[in-house]
Amino acid sequence: MNQLWIRIVVPTVASFCAVLGATSLVFADCVDGVRSPSAAEIEFAARAEAALAAALPAPIANSERRGAPYDFSKQPRLSFCRGDKEGAFSVGVAGGYLYKFPKAEYDRLYVERKAVEKQIEELEKLPPEKEAEYKQLLAQARAIYDAAPRRQRKDPPFTPEQQAQVDRANVEGRKVEQAASTVVSDHRASVKSQTDSLRAQAKRLEGFPQELSVQLGMNLDRLPESGPTVATLGAASAARSTGLRVHNVVLVVEGREGPARQALFDAVDKSYLQELIGQPLPDVAASKLRAERAASAAPVSAPR
User: Fold this and answer.
1) Percent of the residues in the chain that have a pLDDT greater than 70, as a whole number
2) pTM, whole model, 2 decimals?
3) What is the domain range of residue 179?
4) How many CB atoms sit inside 10 A of residue 298's CB?
5) What is the DSSP string of 218-250?
6) Tally of helices (H runs) and strands (E runs) in the chain
7) Domain contains 290
8) Span 133-181, pLDDT tens digits
9) Cys-Cys with 57: which of 179, 186, 247, 267 at CB 3.0–4.6 Å?
10) Does 215 reside within a domain?
11) Looking at residues 74-82, what average pLDDT do you find?
């Protein structure tokens, strides 16, 4: 039996900017020209990125990191309009992982999903009186079609009268077929509230590959809405990194709801992120060392 894979990927720049609440700087909008970042801004951004990268969790059980590891030696790229104040930027980092359910867990999910799908099938099955009505309508439609003139390719064309009979039969037959379809659709509509809930349950038990993303942002001007795998620490900062200090940190793990997503979210050290608020950032070397220690930590198991 195939095994279930969950792939956690680094999001695109556009999607991560949406999480950051950031607007890309477009030089054409800088009516007063542009300015280069100051040395202090570059140092703060480098420390901020490294501090966030150090918070990326070690792989949970039965998973591995995907993509290139964060490069602690890289310099941040910042651009500003001339009128932008110091610190007019947010910082973001994302990481990727590959998760594979153990076979026993995949098999359990498969059995549970099939049981839920069977419940849906039973609910959508026509009750005896509706089944009898449905079959009667289909038989009526067949009788209408059978009563119409027929011809084979070698036969002469229909007479105008015969063609009119065929056309009437097609119209009447389609009406009866539509009535039969309505019997089915009306019954399914009557149980839709139940089947919708069961379909959502079955979806959580699906075994396809899944894409999730782990995103960390700092000094956002707008904070995301709350959610089971969203953590917002500090307060929104309209001026973003004003004062070159940490005003807020946001963690978002996105993707289909499930144990792996929750386990990955739980594996992030929220107390470490909280300690960054309002404090001087660690230097890049210290963040790199923390990341190396985190990479060697024992994996966390995904709950069932």
Assistant:
1) 88
2) 0.71
3) 111-202
4) 7
5) ES-SSPPPP-TTEEEEE---TTSSGGG---EEE
6) 9, 8
7) yes
8) 999 999 999 999 999 999 999 999 999 999 999 999 999 999 999 999 9
9) 267
10) yes
11) 92
